[in-house]
What we know:
single chain, 372 residues, mainly alpha, Ferritin, 2 domains, 16 helices
Amino acid sequence: MTAIDPRAALASLQKELDGAALYAVFAELEPDPKLSAVYGRMAATETRHAERWRSELEAAGVAVPAHRPSTRTRVLIWLARRFGIGMVLPSVMSAEAADSRGYQAASVDPFAADERSHGRMLQHIRTTTAGGMAGETLARLEGRHRSAGGNALRAAVLGANDGLVSNLSLVMGVAGAELAGGAILVTGFAGLLAGAISMALGEWLSVQSARELYASQLATEKAELASDPEEEVEELALIYQARGLPDDQALALARRIVADPSSALETLAREELGIDPEELGGSAWEAAITSFVLFAVGAIIPVVPFVVYSGGTAVAVSIAVSTVGLFAIGAAITLFTGRTVLFSGMRQVLFGLAAAAVTYGIGWLVGVNVGG
C-alpha cells in the first residue's frame, strides 16, 4: 500500500474500526469463554488492520479524525445486545465478504485473507446456534457434512413425491377436459419426460456449480497456504480453540498440520471449508441420473392405468394407485419428521388428491367451455 487514495483509505479505516468495535461487543456478550476469545482475536485483527491504514494515512500527511462508530455499526451493536449475536451474524458475514472482495480488487492480499478467515469463522458460528456456538457443537459440524446418506434418502423420497403429485395433477387435468385416452397417455408420458429431464438438469447444474465453487475455494486455500502459512495456522488455531482446546495446544496442533504439505490442504479443506477434497460434493452426473429415475418412478404411477383401461375406469384406477403411492411416500417422510405413519401418510394423500381435484376441475371447466 504505497500510493493510497485518502478518501478510500479513510473509508477502509472506518470499516476496520467498526469491525473491531463490533467483535469486541460480541466477545463481551458471548457466554462461551472459548468463543468469546475467538471474537476477541477477530477484534484484534481488525484493530491491526486499522493501525496499518492509520499509519499509511499519517505517512501521506492525511489527518485522521477520532473514530465514531457508523450508524450501521451502532444499530448492529444495539441489536446484538438486545436480541443476541445470532440476530446480526448474517449482516456481519455479508460485510466480511464485501471487504474481502474489495481488498482483493485493491491487491491488499493480507487483509483479504483475514476477511475471508473471519467470514469462514462466522459461517461456522452461524450454522449452529442462534447466539453463538459451544466448542462441542462446532466439533459436530463435520458430522453434519458427512450425512450424505440421510440427504440422499430425503432427496429420493421428495423426488418421487414431486413426480407423483405433478404428473397426477397433469393427468387429472387432461382427463377432466374429457380428452381421449390416447391423448391422456401421451400427455402423461410427456409430463414424465419433461419433469424428469428438468429435475435432472436442475440437479446437474446444482451439483456441478457446487463442485466448481469448492474447486475455486480449494485453489484459493492452496494459494493462501503457499503465500502465508502463518495465516492458515491462525485460522486453524481459532477453530480448535472454539472446539475447546487450550490456546497453546490449538496453536501447536495447527502448526503441526500446516507444516506437513501432504495433509495440510486436505485438513484445511475439511476444517475451514467443510468439504471433502476427494468428492467435492459428489458426481453431478450421478445426481442427475438419480434425480431423473426417482422423478420418473413417481410420475409413472398415475399414467400406467391409462395403458390398460380407458374412460372413467382409468381415472378411478389412476386415483386409487396414486393414493397408495402418496400414502407410501408420506410414510417414508416419517423417517425425517418423526410423525406417525398414519398422520404423515394421510396428510400426503390429502394434499396430493386435493391438487389433482383442483386440476381436474379446471380441466373440466376448460373442456366444457371449449367443447360447448
